[in-house]
Amino acid sequence: MMLMSTVPNLLDKLTHHGPFVTRYPLTMEQVYQNYGFIYYRHVVKLDWHNAVLDVSAVRDRGYVLINSVPQGVVIRESSQTKLTITALTGQYLDILVENQGRINYGSGINNNTKGLIANVTINGLILKDWFIYPLNVSEKVLNNLDSAVQSKQSSPPKYSGVSQYITPSLFVGQIQMPNKTGFPQDTYLRTDGWFKGQAYVNGFNLGRYWPSAGPQLTLYVPKGALRPYPATNTLVLLELEYAPCSQTRNEIEVDYCFVEFVTTPVINATTVSLERREEWNRAGGFNWHDQH
């Protein structure tokens, strides 16, 4: 797998009509998006040092960046919705929000909107003026990304200095099916070492992968989504948190990321609890390979 680009670098290609420009954050539904991902950008107007960013209104999971450098993750389900940040005037404060699905029981089904459903604050001050990008990671968009964007010359993801998070990024790989009768066949995508994201083959959405959460470690790949030999099949991963590559403190190298297509599903693996994993990640010490 090779780096295609970071999500911040692809905002113009992943958004149909440019950003919505608003005084306060709007929900996904208010910008005519029902699922997937939405990207919020605020240009910082004051200098902030060790300030408390409050994103209590996140639905459901938000990746906070300052000038593309990860600051941490805010999570609705764990009430982990505050981060300590330092941001300077003119920098971009970005929040990539993932809609993790709709509540389908109890009182939670009411007003079940997604994205940022209320204001974001720093030290209690409401942040005003936002650019909102509803992201469209569809077959048509993936197939039309410029080949130049897919080269190694793309700006690499930034590596957080306080955790193992990277800038959310798109990675791409290509593979041919065997030149044998009966191929392609149904197969399974295994993403050991990758952290959390979305997988697409030939533009077809395979679903979410999250091997550190488990217990499912593979995604089903129907043979109908694959192209027979000699055609090339293109796999794209939208990785949100961590790629299994060699790292430096400022950037990651992207030459050593790989996945596997396997014949047997793994749907009942033993995994580390999410709570424990989040503790390790906040401490900068989580290593997927140490736990498997």
From TrEMBL:
<dbReference type="Pfam" id="PF21317">
    <property type="entry name" value="BetaGal_ABD_1"/>
</dbReference>
<feature type="domain" description="Beta-galactosidase 1-like first all-beta">
    <location>
        <begin position="25"/>
        <end position="136"/>
    </location>
</feature>
<protein>
    <submittedName>
        <fullName>Beta-galactosidase-like</fullName>
    </submittedName>
</protein>
<dbReference type="GO" id="GO:0005975">
    <property type="term" value="P:carbohydrate metabolic process"/>
</dbReference>
<keyword id="KW-0325">Glycoprotein</keyword>
<dbReference type="InterPro" id="IPR048913">
    <property type="entry name" value="BetaGal_gal-bd"/>
</dbReference>
<dbReference type="GO" id="GO:0004553">
    <property type="term" value="F:hydrolase activity, hydrolyzing O-glycosyl compounds"/>
</dbReference>
<dbReference type="InterPro" id="IPR001944">
    <property type="entry name" value="Glycoside_Hdrlase_35"/>
</dbReference>
<dbReference type="Pfam" id="PF21467">
    <property type="entry name" value="BetaGal_gal-bd"/>
</dbReference>
<keyword id="KW-0378">Hydrolase</keyword>
<dbReference type="InterPro" id="IPR048912">
    <property type="entry name" value="BetaGal1-like_ABD1"/>
</dbReference>
<dbReference type="InterPro" id="IPR008979">
    <property type="entry name" value="Galactose-bd-like_sf"/>
</dbReference>
<comment type="similarity">
    <text>Belongs to the glycosyl hydrolase 35 family.</text>
</comment>
<keyword id="KW-0732">Signal</keyword>
<keyword id="KW-0326">Glycosidase</keyword>
<feature type="domain" description="Beta-galactosidase galactose-binding">
    <location>
        <begin position="170"/>
        <end position="228"/>
    </location>
</feature>
